[in-house]
Design brief:
Hydantoin permease, 445 residues, two-stranded antiparallel ribbon, 2 strands, mainly alpha, 20 helices, globular
């Protein structure tokens, strides 16, 4: 029996896959680094053009084929089908990402509960605590990862509708309300005004060519493109859904939550005189932890609330990363969802343990690849190679190897002919060129 999402369920599920832990630090730091509002505006424009073009391409693949990524390539190709089916290899990207993503979720879980009873007195202590978790406290790192691992695969075990859709229907509105409440709380601080100006005041002196590349990369990769996730979910789309409207909703939800996260994070950074140039995990696990302590007892509650929101954002993304592979295994090898789940879980578990050990002082020397920790290796392999290549292949495939008449019939109810031609031109020529350009710049400049 074919399973379909509800209309609102599809929007929330796909939005949940796009909204993740990176929204808490990647978007705010890139916006602050690259000219504030100028970067935000550019990110919005690129997301609604290049990012949306590939998003719609993945929607088309899933909706037309009603199959997983590999079989979508094979069944839709007008030529070279026996070669295009190997495009399904990009599903492994989701497994790689989930392997280190669950480790980060474990950190979030640890900080969420510990913040109820303890907050570091200053930034030096906060950094020492974080370094201790990574390099010394192996048992705690493993325990926190394992809880995140079990919760993620427990949701997946319940299936597409009872598991993933139900989780997102509950979590996504809750996440939005939590962030909105925290944002309203932030407005009472003087730092809120500084945060707003920091993120949204045009600063063309800071804006550069690197800003364009950062915005383009963020536009592609915050929409969970290139791993088959959108294709898989689109295969379960009900028939009477406005594909263009739903896609724009997803993009806007992702952007809006990123903006709220940015304002919240930088309000506390500026309110207590911390360094706004701190990037990555250090922004959340070091800088913010030391700042919450300055709010007294209420800081403990606020820290718990903040990390709970982060965990919500994390788990909605986590359950989406391995679903394409599970969908493929069940359809290709005619095995039960539970067996496919256990096979996927075993691979993720082994890779995640390697990521944890790559930080530990006693084992890190054994878990290095090309002088990188195994954690960093997986991160760079997926972010700089597999994901861009996946997006490139999907844009080329839909643009040149699928019958254009099929695609036009699918979107003709939602797009005018001129809009369709513009989208298809962007998909065929501008998007692939942009990806090649970014990849060339990253590797050689």
């Amino acid at each position: 029996m074919r399973i379909y999402f509800s209309k609102i369920g599809f929007i929330l599920v796909v939005a949940g896959s796009a909204v993740g832990l990176g929204n808490a630090w990647k978007f705010p730091t890139l916006a602050a680094k690259n000219g504030g509002f100028s970067f935000v505006l550019l990110y919005l424009l690129l997301t609604l053009t290049l990012g949306l073009s590939v998003f719609l391409a993945e929607i088309a693949m899933g909706r037309l084929s009603r199959k997983d990524l590999a079989h979508s390539f094979e069944s839709l190709a007008v030529r070279g089908a026996r070669y295009w089916k190997f495009g399904g290899i990009f599903m492994i990207s989701g497994v790689f990402v989930l392997s280190f993503y669950l480790v980060i979720m474990g950190w979030v879980l640890k900080y969420m509960f510990f913040s109820l009873f303890y907050l570091p007195k200053d930034i030096i202590q906060a950094k020492a605590d974080f370094d201790m978790l990574l390099s010394q406290d192996l048992t705690l790192s493993f325990l926190c990862f394992f809880v995140s691992f079990i919760l993620t695969f427990a949701v997946l075990a319940r299936g597409l509708i009872k598991g993933i859709e139900k989780l997102n229907v509950i979590i996504m509105p809750s996440l939005f309300l939590m962030l909105l409440a925290m944002l309203l709380y932030c407005t009472q601080f003087e730092g809120f005004k500084q945060a707003f100006l920091h993120l949204f005041s045009p600063n063309l002196k800071v804006f550069s060519f690197d800003s364009l590349l950062d915005a383009l990369g963020l536009a592609f990769f915050t929409l969970c493109l290139g791993i088959g996730c959108i294709v898989t979910y689109a295969a379960a789309l009900p028939k009477k859904v406005n594909l263009l409207q739903s896609s724009i909703f997803v993009v806007c939800i992702n952007l809006f939550i990123a903006l709220m996260m940015g304002l919240i994070v930088f309000t506390f950074i500026f309110e207590f005189g911390s360094d706004p140039s701190v990037q990555g995990a250090g922004l959340v696990f070091v800088s913010l932890m030391s700042l919450f302590n300055q709010l007294g007892v209420f800081g403990n509650f606020l820290a718990f609330y903040f990390f709970l929101a982060l965990f919500f954002a994390g788990i909605t993304s986590a359950v989406s990363m391995v679903e394409p592979l599970i969908f493929y295994l069940t359809r290709t090898f005619k095995i039960s969802r539970l067996k496919a789940l256990m096979m996927s879980a075993l691979v993720v578990f082994v890779l995640s343990i390697a990521c944890i050990l790559s930080f530990n002082a006693s084992f890190s020397a054994y878990f290095k690849v090309f002088e990188l920790s195994f954690f960093d290796f997986l991160d760079k392999l997926t972010s700089n190679f597999l994901l861009p290549l996946g997006v490139f292949c999907i844009s080329i495939f839909v643009g040149f190897f699928v019958k254009i008449s099929q695609i036009y019939r699918l979107f003709s109810s939602f797009m005018s002919r001129k809009m369709f031609k513009f989208w298809f031109f962007v998909l065929r020529f501008i998007t692939p060129f942009a990806i090649i350009f970014i990849s060339f710049y990253n590797f050689f400049v």
